[in-house]
Amino acid sequence: MANEIWYSIHRPENVISPSLLVYPDRIQHNIDLMISMVGDVTRLRPHVKTYKNANIINLQMAAGIQKFKCATIAEAELLGGCNAKDVLLAMQPVGVNAYRFIKLIEKYPNTTFSTLIDNAKTLNILSEIAAVNKTKLSLWVDINNGMNRTGIIPDEEALALYSELHKNKHLIAAGLHVYDGHLRNTDPALRESECDAAFEPVISLKKSIENLSIPSPKIVAGGSPTFPFHCKRTDVDASPGTTLLWDSGYGKLFPEMGFLPAAVLFTRIISKPTTGILCFDLGHKSIAPEMPFPRIEFLDLKHSKQISQSEEHLVVEYDDLTIPEVGDIHYAIPKHICPTVAKYDTLTVIKDNAVADYWPVTARTQKSTI
């Protein structure tokens, strides 16, 4: 058994395809690597959006990680149910989600929840809601340092917003949140240089806040690509997410980081419709479809070319049809793991090349109970 291929299953005939397999020993490796890179486990705030699962949260908590980041109320509720100590909802709550956030705080009093704002209107709405509910809300100012997706530019307007937040008697100024997912240079040295340059205005904003005699803001920064650099900043909490399961997209871009793919797609050939063509049961409903081809990296099928995909099917050109047969099993790493996990109700847990358990993807929906 020592020579078994790490991803293979002993009795695959009993496994549904498609399935998403996860490997706890590899997840543990990735957790340990995150902690060793940051040096101080109290400065880790991993994002749960990748896996949305209590078992993986519990593995991290057992390793000493107590702070987490999430993107939805359902993910925050999952963390509350795990008794996570500190949870940042890294999605500015608008509309009914602002009221759901209050209910979340009420339901899980043992967890400290916070969230983001990037404008005065949202600040005022949350202040009014906090006042009506006789509570204080902890808020981070979301900073746009180049990604141009959310946040406020770190200039005088951001300084004014943070000052207003600090003065508001119904709110708590938690700090600054900075996500720089646009920084993906494959050269680590250049990526670090770009990360440092993008972070300079944030440092300047922090100093400006301190000059107003406001307590120095805490900072949560980065995702997986910039994790190696932010984790060196002793006054910053780093918040990687994809590092827990990894994928072929980041694996090819950032091989120097040393994280292991810990999630594998299990698939079968369902048809050989014509010469040189294979069809797998890996459609849009089973893989994140937003990436260009290839959307997966086959671990055991070389020289294949993915050419089309529909709801249930993935069509592949292959140069040797004398080997694959209809019903044959294959394994592949998804290019983008985060939205791929959300396609599955459960993760099939593999230990010692055998199915050992099934972990529910509890927070794959927008709503759990709140």
Automatic annotation (TrEMBL):
- Report keywords, A-Z: Lyase
Query: What GO molecular function annotation could you give as one example from this UniProt entry?
Result: D-serine ammonia-lyase activity
SUPFAM superfamilies the record matches: PLP-binding barrel (SSF51419)
Is Lyase one of the keywords?
yes
Lineage top rank: taxon: Bacteria
Which residues are in the D-serine dehydratase-like domain? Answer: 262-351
A GO biological process of this protein is: D-serine catabolic process
**Pfam family membership, one:** Ala_racemase_N
Q: Which family does it belong to?
A: Belongs to the DSD1 family.
Q: Which PANTHER family match?
A: D-SERINE DEHYDRATASE (PTHR28004:SF2), ZGC:162816-RELATED (PTHR28004)
Put simply, this protein is called: D-serine deaminase, pyridoxal phosphate-dependent
Species of origin reads Maribacter ulvicola
